Amino acid sequence: MTVLxxxxxxxxxxxxxxxxxxxxVLLSVAFVCGTLVFTDTMNATFDKLFANxxxxxxxxxxxxxxxxxxxxxxxxxASLREKLAKVDGVAKVEPSANSRQLTVVDGRKxxxxxxxxxxxxxxxxxxxxxxxxxxxxxxxxxxxxxxxxDSDTADKHGxxxxxxxxxxxxxxxxxxxxxxxxxxKTTNPGAAVLYxxxxxxxxxxxxxxxxxxxxxxxxxxxxxxEQLKERVSAALGSSAGDYALRTAAESKEENKKDVGSxxxxxxxxxxxxxxxxxLVGVFLIVNTFSMLVAQRTREIGLMRxxxxxxxxxxxxxLVEAVLxxxxxxxxxxxxxxxxxxxxxxxxxxxxxxxxTSELTIKATTPVVGLVIGVFVTLLASCLPAxxxxxxxxxAALRDAGTPADGKAxxxxxxxxxxxxxxxGLALVAAAKADTAAAGSGMLGLGVxxxxxxxxxxxxxxxxLVVRVISAVVLRVFGPVxxxxxxxxxxxxxxxxxxxSALMIGLALVAALSVVGSSMVASATEQLDKSVGADFIIxxxxxxxxxxxxxxxxxxxxxxxxLTPITTVNAxxxxxxxxxxxxxxxxxxxxxxxxxxxxxxxxxxxxxWGKDAMSVPEGFAKDHGIKLGxxxxxxxxxxxxxxxxxxxxxxxxxxxxxxxxxLALDTARQYLPADKMPLDMLVFAKAADGKAKEAAxxxxxxxxxxxxxxxxxQADYKKLIKDQVGRLLNMxxxxxxxxxxxxxxxxxxxxxxxxxERTREIGLLRxxxxxRRQMRRMIRLESVVIALFGALLGLGLGMAWGTTxxxxxxxxxxxxxxxxxxxxxxxxxxSAVVGLLAALVPAFRAGRMNVLKxxxxx
Length: 857
Prior knowledge:
By secondary structure, the protein is an alpha+beta fold. It has 5 domains: 1-55 and 247-403, no CATH class; 56-246, no CATH class; 410-456; 461-531 and 712-857, no CATH class; 544-706, no CATH class. The chain is built from 26 helices and 24 strands. Strands 15, 16, 17, 18, 19, 20, 21, 22, 23 and 24 form a 10-stranded mixed beta sheet that branches. Strands 4, 5, 6, 7, 8, 9, 10 and 11 form an 8-stranded mixed beta sheet that branches. It has a 4-stranded antiparallel beta sheet with strand order 3-13-1-14. A hairpin with a 4-residue loop joins strand 20 (630-635) and strand 21. The protein starts with a helix and ends with a helix. It is a multi-pass membrane protein. Pfam families: FtsX (PF02687), MacB_PCD (PF12704). The chain crosses the membrane at residues 268-294, 317-343, 363-386, 414-433, 445-478, 499-521, 730-755, 780-800, 820-843. It comes from Streptomyces eurocidicus (Streptoverticillium eurocidicus).
């Protein structure tokens, strides 16, 4: 009880100094709890949606991931409906006709498809739709010229009943009038949904009135879903294997699997960044308790003198850590709920409406947050607590502090140097690896060892690096600058720990910047070196081009030639006896002009002949394929061909690396017309001297298709840069949490340092140092610590990024590009961060009463 009272008194006595450490715990716990609440809410919301929409038993086509990309959904025969209706136990049969391979355009030629990556869905309106949506304006669709649009898409694009929309689907384009608006009862998963009457959906989406996408069966009273499924399977007999039969529970699990993979990636990515923030927070807490223990040296010495044992002293410090962890965790749990609500609002702005009234907080979430917060705080306080037990009763007679342990410092330095050297060797080994798998393992080991090594050797580096930075930055400020330098060097271990927190976040920023910049530079070089086409034409949503779209592209003038490219799915039987699934790139002879492809054997031009193909050199080596070999190629949904290997292509490229090629005419020879995959993209070469005219002609030809983009090489390079940039910006934003925690560490260190140096500050003021000079001294000290952390972080990050690029070179991304503008901006930004972090400590130092400060013990 005495230990608890002492700990509570100390905690409350230093509550201001504990506040920033509590914020670090709060942010870390909030990120973890917010992620868990958000993903649990998403899962619960989708569970409810899937439960509302699932039939007792569903009958659909067996899923075939290898089917050709014809733009037409897989179907089941319409004649099956009558057979299913006769099954004992079936109360109702509801056919569905839907497609996700369509685009919807309004009267202003504006694409209504979501920009979040969610699909545009066309489906038939029937009674089953009323489980999940209700028509809140207008009426149900009747006839081929009417449709109902979901309310979220309508609101976002200003569509009202009476407006005309054009639907672009693989079977053909058609127009409809919006006669109703449907609102989701649970959540809109982000898709744009258009409802038609059933015959229209069959004809316009599936391309046949003799087919459906599937059937939903309602079980009669007293018949379970499992029983109904068994009866349907028995009724279908030997053909049951051609269909996917699922109960409502199985359909729900299947749907959850598709959504769950996305949610799991999001969940673990967010938790990963939360882990980085926790790691950074550890440095802050270690520093806080180390400084508090140092400031209470006399007090602890007195406690030892009057009989307190070492275990009691240690328990006292650890209890303070538990109090800090509990307070920070409780606040963090509340902050996590607020963060989850914010994430839901963000998803809403992207089109996925999530109702905050359905916020799901599992009982385990607060427990996880509390355990993480308390455990991390306890872990971080163990070292300072152990140091507190080593304070002797004689320390009560000293003015301040305890003598440094020189032997421990030397051991720490040796360990740090060994870890750093071992990490450096691992990075070198990763850079020289022959395979990405082997190199990735060494890269991970190198990152871990160098990071830990830099943290451990931080005090030694502080003594060296801070002097260099001070010589460049601080000497111009005269005596005040020299005082700031000496303050930063006074306790190298503290400076090293404070800078290490900032170092971690900036190292990751630098590494990712190098990787991202190198990817863009490599892709740009490959485009310059390989792409001879003037234009690249493709769907913005990455769907294949419909026949009508391809026809429109072919109508453009001032074009020398067009090179369509598609992918044919096939199964290859190889000389070593293995059978592999493979996507073959099908194109025409001008492909070689539009995209230069190097060969190591044979001539690429011969690939476009009859019954010919190419294979990449790595694949050929792995399976013993030689030039001139004849491979058995079974086209999925088509016939089997014997194709002669006319070329073995080089793997030294990032464009179509590992790709196999054959002529479109060869593919058409072995595939039925209705199974021929649609064009994925089209290269275009302008007629001589007609580049501008060809660009205008192509854009005019596809003007009715706003989702089609006509890009020249400059546009395509910008697209790649923007895509990488968006990804990096999102990651930087998440890493910003770790950097915020690191900044709090700088603030805390300076604030406690000011308290620790109260008497010294009073003496400096007494001998003539002005308030302004005092504030400047604190700010310069902060800037030096921030720049020290930035220098270590950026240097370490560039080493990691350079090694990662060497691994990417094995995949054809061979250009190393250091983004010096970004590196320089981050480095200079660190100085600004240092200035901001010092504002409050510097203000407090400048406001000290001189006489009271001198009188402080």
